[in-house]
Design brief:
Layout lengths: L5 E7 L12 H4 L9 E9 L5 E14 L6 E7 L11 E7 L4 E10 L4 E2 L3 E5 L4 E4 L2 E2 L4 E5 L6 H5 L16 E8 L2 E3 L3 E6 L2 E9 L4 E6 L10 E7 L4 E14 L4 E3 L4 E4 L1 E3 L7 E2 L6 E5 L2 E3 L1 E6 L2 E9 L4 E6 L10 E6 L5 E6 L2 E3 L4 E4 L2 E4 L4 E8 L16 E4 L2 E3 L3 E4 L3 E6 L4 E6 L10 E6 L5 E6 L1 E4 L18 E3 L5 E5 L29 H6 L15 H18 L1
Parallel strand pairs: 8-18, 19-30, 32-41, 36-43
Antiparallel strand pairs: 1-5, 2-3, 3-4, 5-6, 6-11, 7-10, 9-16, 12-13, 12-17, 14-15, 15-16, 17-18, 18-21, 20-27, 21-22, 23-24, 23-28, 25-26, 26-27, 28-29, 31-33, 33-38, 34-35, 34-39, 36-37, 37-38, 39-40, 42-43
Pfam family, one: CshA_repeat
Protein name: CshA domain-containing protein
Organism: Limosilactobacillus vaginalis
């Protein structure tokens, strides 16, 4: 309470007046009696040294008496709404009835310039985002620095209860316009453009002081902030900007090789160039097929099952396990994701399966007439991820007339037989004793873990003996014969006769002078030396011993006729 014995209350900007005891403070200031009168004083700017700057009025202080024993109230009004900075403080000085100094209270407003909101919103792909535009007030907030408690004035009164501070409040928004290329535009809507591509539309809702962003359905990311100008009820305008982030739920299609399970992670992304974050585990994720939701679904292609889709609801992982023999793309599958707020988003997933082609070979072999030959099927995988081997689960099999055969032995009349060990791929060829030549190769099939086949051809060559009593006719190269019925486990191929066996030429014997016959092993030139009168003409060398035998008989017959 202000004591009744106190006299004038003075409002001043100059603290030095308080300590000038030779000055009549109440005369230089303004006397307030016990009535309800008030004093007004210009508020000035303050320099860097904390001194008032003359003739720089930016507002008005008002000191109002509340009457006897009720104290006074100080208020401040900013008259220059463009000003932003410190205000020279006001001092309220109290004198007693003898006009002696008793004490003072210091007041200094802190100016807070009006500030428009710069909203930033986050929303889901395809969903509207609303930004509320507001302006904070630019009215002062009054602060007070009190005297030391030893001052007589403060020993008798509590000035904090005698002074009321004016509380801040928002400035009304009278209008909003888009700010484009440095000027305001009266357009109600504006296209959102990013990298020369339209990514949505902005609209102004003046009734609610809102700017609304409707993103394009496929856009995910962060557009450039849209600038606007807001007009306040204080008569001033404020520039601001509205920034947005469009969140999307992403599921990448996958690509892998035959027989390998593929996985893709559902993630929330805020920009295509940034990694997404996993979904919250309480977001429901389901396959949708014919209106039904499930965590597991058969993958189909043209109505046929080609694999299995599965969802891990705890991680948001979608997996596709293709059938081992499937190659290509299954039909797309629809996945529904429900956010924590209940919003639903449908995604589509379509994996691609590339073929894995193993290869196989059998080393060709060469052997003597009547000797067995052995080789082995070798298989090479088309990928490190798919095992290729020959064992009991992946046996080697003969292919006869384009069909895989379970026979482990094939016999070809007039040529020989092939024996195959299915679990090792070892193949043995045993030629008929009289056969020599190069028959058509036999085909053998092997498979990898995907049951993808690889076919190798086994080619053999049979060399005839250097000396043979009766050479057998060579079979047609490339003629594999005709398959006939045979006991289980063996296939017989009937080899057609391509030529008749040659018979040795018989010469008539002369009883008058028989000539001894040379043995097949005896060189022909020795026979010629035993014939009297025979010339020494060199005969052409022939590989066939039977041919030499026939020539020798003819020569002996001619000599006998001359005698």
């Amino acid at each position: 309470m202000w004591p009744a014995t106190f006299g004038p209350i003075t409002l001043t900007n100059n603290l030095n007046q308080i300590f000038d005891r030779n000055t009549s403070i109440w005369v230089e200031g303004n006397y307030i009696d016990t009535g309800r009168n008030s004093i007004k004083m210009a508020a000035q700017k303050m320099d860097e040294n904390g001194e008032p700057v003359p003739d720089t009025n930016v507002g008005t202080y008002t000191l109002t008496s509340k009457g006897a024993h009720r104290g006074a109230e100080v208020s401040f009004e900013l008259t220059d709404s463009t000003y932003n900075g410190p205000i020279a403080p006001a001092y309220v000085i109290l004198s007693d009835s003898n006009f002696e100094y008793i004490g003072f209270v210091r007041f200094q407003p802190q100016i807070i310039r009006g500030e428009v909101s710069n909203p930033s919103t986050v929303g889901w792909q395809g969903k509207e985002q609303h930004a509320k535009i507001s302006i904070k007030n630019n009215l002062p907030v009054i602060t007070q620095n009190d005297n030391p408690s030893t001052d007589l004035f403060y020993q008798r009164t509590n000035p904090e209860k005698k002074i009321e501070q004016k509380k801040p409040s928002n400035i009304d928004v009278r209008d909003i316009k888009f700010w484009v290329n440095g000027s305001a535009t009266g357009a109600q809507s504006l296209d959102a453009i990013l990298n020369d591509e339209k990514i949505g539309v902005y609209r102004i809702n003046r009734g609610k002081n809102e700017i609304i962003y409707q993103p394009s359905g496929t856009f995910v990311g962060r557009p450039q902030p849209i600038e606007f100008i807001a007009y306040g009820s204080d008569g001033h305008s404020y520039l601001g900007n509205f920034s947005q982030t469009v969140l999307g739920i992403q599921l990448q299609n996958t690509h892998d090789i035959q027989g390998v399970t593929q996985t893709s992670q559902i993630t929330i992304i805020s920009s295509p160039n940034e990694p997404g974050r996993p979904l919250d585990s309480n977001w429901p994720i389901d396959f949708i097929s014919n209106g039904q939701a499930s965590k597991q679904l058969s993958a189909t292609k043209n109505g046929q099952t080609v694999g299995l889709y599965q969802i891990d609801p705890n991680t948001g992982t979608v997996s596709f396990a293709p059938d081992k023999n499937f190659i290509g793309q299954p039909d797309k599958v629809t996945i529904r994701v429900t956010s924590a707020s209940g919003e639903q988003t449908n995604l589509q997933y379509q994996p691609t399966v590339d073929a894995v082609r193993p290869s196989a070979r059998i080393a060709p072999t060469i052997g003597e007439q009547g000797q067995s030959q052995t080789s082995k099927v070798r298989i090479t995988s088309g990928s490190d991820q798919v095992m290729a081997r020959i064992d009991a689960n992946h046996p080697a099999r003969f292919i006869i007339n384009g069909q895989v055969s379970n026979a482990e032995k094939i016999s070809i009349s007039g040529i020989g037989s092939y024996i195959l060990e299915p679990s090792t791929g070892l193949v043995t060829f045993s030629p008929d004793f009289e056969y020599f030549g190069k028959p058509k190769g036999i085909n053998i099939q092997v498979t990898d873990d995907n049951n993808t086949p690889a076919i190798a051809t086994y080619n053999v060559t049979v060399l005839r003996h250097q000396v043979a009593q009766q050479p057998s006719p060579a079979a047609n190269s490339g003629d594999q014969g005709v398959i006939e019925e045979s006991p289980a486990g063996e296939t017989v191929i009937q080899q057609p006769v391509s030529q008749q066996q040659s018979q040795p030429v018989q010469q008539p014997q002369t009883q008058q002078q028989p000539t001894p016959q040379p043995t097949p092993q005896q060189p022909v030139q020795n026979v010629a030396e035993q014939v009297p009168g025979a010339d020494n003409t060199e005969l052409p060398m022939l590989d066939d011993t039977n041919a030499w035998y026939m020539i020798a008989i003819a020569l002996l017959g001619a000599l006998s006729g001359e005698e």
